[in-house]
Amino acid sequence: VHPAGDTIFAVASGRGRAGVAVVRISGPAAGAALGALAGTLPPARVARLARLADPQDRDPIDRGLVLWFPAPSSFTGEDVAELHVHGGSAVLAALAGALGRMAGVRPAEAGEFTRRAFENGKLDLTEAEGLADLVAAETAAQRRQALRQLEGALGTLYGGWRRRLVRALAFVEAAIDFPDEDLDPEAERRALADAAAVRAEIAAHLADGERGERLRDGLDVAIVGAPNVGKSSLLNALAKRDAAIVADMAGTTRDVIEVHLDLGGWPLVVADTAGLREARDVVEAEGVRRAAARAETADLRLVLVDARDWPAIPAEVAALAGPGALLVANKIDLVAAPLAPDAEGRVPLPLSVATGMGLPELLTALERAAAEALDGGGAPALTRARHRAALVDAEAALAGAVAEGRRAPELRAEDLRMAVRAVGRVLGKVDVERILDVVFAEFCIGK
Ligand code: GDP
After folding, report:
1. Which atom of ligand 1 is nearest to the CA of 272?
2. Taking residues 285-299, what's their average pLDDT?
């Protein structure tokens, strides 16, 4: 592991040839490095056109914009220099060579700039994760959620809970530590009532149907059906649409092939699974088993049947065609009469992958299902299993802290402390600040 006090540099823009590339330098030697390359430092936070040369042999490297962000007003909180140069590999190689030869300067490791920003208090952990999600966002809804998180929507929510719990803890501890002081018993009762309110807010936040996590990953849709109904034809048709952002045709075993779709800004991951039928051999039995397992865990099952067989559904498929499934009859081009309801009153969505008929309606149905499952109406949503695990812990600890009936104040305090720690874990605040500071600030004990 490299020392944290090093000055680091990296190409901050994307890979490959480009008009402009941005090289970022952060750390105590950033100013010296910029000065060595550009001759002098520009005024703080003002872009200046400069000729960059290798300080060793004065070999000119490029002409570009340079920026100087002295600490602490920079992304990382350290001295930062930015070079906007031409995005060619020879330019970037020359710059990397010149920077790498400077004392105390080295290439950055993955995520190291953001890590320093976090360590210098520029971002909390949820904001850092929001930044990573924003860079990875593929659809508009993912982008909006990530930007909200980067701008502190989750940090503010969790930070608020944490502050209120620290306050409750302070009141409980004060009663323990200063039993002879004339503390207002009402204040402690109110603080515990507020901790109970925080607990209810956490519980409501946890019970969100995992919208935020699913929005990050994309709504998981499994196409299920008997062999030959047109599952892979449908997936290919979806992949060829403009909306298909990645046609990830991985999986040579034909187990699962996925297509990522962007429908109205909502991300969907549509997977084709092996055909469901009575297996003829062990290999096929395993394929069918995996397909069924994948279908069962999917957020949405797109059940494909052959329109000519309707209303008959093979037994293996019927098991997955329950409530919440989207029933679609393909090869509608091969039947003349409209589809009649089956015994349960269901009418499948008519589709012909061959002619394209019914495809727009299917996409509309998928978009509606995604919006229903993923739209949280703009409220900040829990986005990661890491947050969920910590908040589940916090909720459990709070249940003990605010339990009705007689309970030793020491035990309530310990539960509150655990809850504060659990919420702090989400934010990356592992230290429980000195509770007595809060006590003294709020009650002026022994003033
Ligand atoms: P899978 O086994 O469910 O993945 O089915 P395939 O996608 O391989 O399709 C099986 C056969 O049905 C192929 O010969 C396709 O060309 C044909 N097929 C798929 N969709 C349609 C359709 O809408 N109409 C007609 N007439 N044939 C189709």
Report:
1. 4
2. 80
